[in-house]
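Justification of computing resources. Each target in the renewal requires a structure prediction run like the one illustrated here; the chain below, 646 residues long, is used simply to show the kind of job we budget for.
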Amino acid sequence: MNVHGPERLAGQGLDSEQHDSGNRAIHALLSDSGVGAQVDLVLTWRAGDDGEHGAYEAWATRGLVRFRRLIAGDGTLQFEVIEVVGQNPLANQDPLALCTLDAERAAAMAGGFDSDDHTRRFIAPEQQSYPFAYERVAQLFDSPNAPDLAVSPRDWCSGSSPGTHGALHVRQSRAPLWFSGPGVVVGTHDLAVRSIDIAPTCLAALGFPLIDGEDATGRTSSERGAAPDVLLARQDGRVVGEVLDGTGRQPSRLYVILMDGMHQTELDDRLANDPDALPHLRRLRARAAVLTGGSIVNFPSITWPSHTAIGTGTWGGHHDVVNPTYYLRDRRATVSPQGISMGTEVYANTAVESVYEAFHRVHPGCLTAAIHAPFGRGATHAFLEGRNLCDRTRVKLLTAEFAADMNPRWQNEHQSVASESLLDTRGMAQVAELLSRGDLPAPLFVYHELAVTDGAGHEYGPHSDGVAAALAETDRRIGRVLGLLDERGLFEETLFVVSADHGMAPQDAALRANPTAHVLAAGLAAIVAEPMIWLLDLAVEAERASDGRTGRVIVYDNDADTSGEQPPYEGAEVIVEAHSEGARPRLIASGSTDPNGRFGFATPSDVASDRIAISVRADGRNSRHLLLDGTRLTFDLRTALYGTPT
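Resulting structure tokens:
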């Protein structure tokens, strides 16, 4: 087996210059007062002493696991646990855990929480599962945009809203998943898949050809010595053959219904216990392959990365939209695709292929539509990307007509939910306009984002009457879609996907928890965009002249710039001291680095290099400590957390 990854190493994770700052950050997150009780996991990739071969790490108060990603002899990815201290916090990766509301209630009770109060039905880490955790952690650190550390908060410890998502654990990472229509094995299937499996499964169902593209290892079929065996230029996911019926009629169209933030157990409970509710979703479910464990989404389980994963069949570490907001090391700049919302397709890695682009590759000239989808690269119609095929006047009229679908309570209770309801109404108007045009063919592929369920989940909580109302509103819009397809005779030839981009968990809103940001309060220099941390560090070299009379320190910015080089750091404060056993440290020299990042000093001939300590400090950067012989002085995280030295 060969060690694989990170694929495009360019500063992500903890390199050898960051072990000290990384250890101090992890210790602060897991042990400092208040925040330590809010953090479940701190995740990273750490370079080895050679600067390359290292391991992925998941740190928790209950234990540590270190693991590697490997390419096995059969060409598949496998994971090898190389060390566990205490309990392996990722040991439970059961993909079917907590897939019912009753299971959530039992887990909450087992953790000492109120199983009957949906606003306090919290689930402790010991009762959680982390499906596909090794893969979902490792993939993140393949992107140069990835952080140095990623934080996964405890179930109830993120933000000030009644509901939220983003964590690695199953409750916030599971979305419902149905494949409905021709070409599927109708019924319930006791399995869970990854959100990256949705795209290849749909393309296989539609009879798309296999191509010489990259698989999850980043190698093309020909590079692996295989015949074409993937459906996208980069395909991390697999075809879920268990749900496909190759003997039946093949669909010719694809319609993805993405109910943003729709928690699976709430949807299932609503369908099971309210027989008069959601008639249009019931119509789709009656002809669907329904996955008991749903879809396990990208980590972090947040809108922009997750939508892009569904739309490309690749993890965020490969499509490069790693977070709603992230830091570009080489540009020393923070970008926020979710913050700007419009024109964000440019942030995705062009080496991956979108499902829209695949449709145009196989069906040149076809029409595809991204209806307010956070990722729409290649779609013919994508309003958020500035490509609008709709007649604006007619869309305005249809928006006014469809306003009756909007629940009036939003306007009085939560303006943010009202805004998402209006967005969904405008999106529905776009669908109606496109499907009723006489001068354009009906879209072969539609990715339809419906946002009000997410807004209600945040503002009311995932198991609230607000979510029930948002789901009913969404069902009315789905009914309009199905009616339009019925009118054009397209319903029976369409494969529908019903899913979400993440789950949702109730929060202790009184905490107003943002544990990721604690590293700043702890005195570390970093860029923070929840749940990610980019440490701002210095690279330091120290050496002594061969005659023993002088020494020098060379300081660089630890992150390379756009030229690929680490720029020298001018003005860093350097303090050099001699340390002798039983005596107080003696100052040898102090000063600042020059424009070349260098500071030189005389060295006493009677003091060995391993007794000369160097401290380097600079505004906006984490301090560094090392010996003149090059030994890096690093905070002993294992002893501090577990009483076990490195």
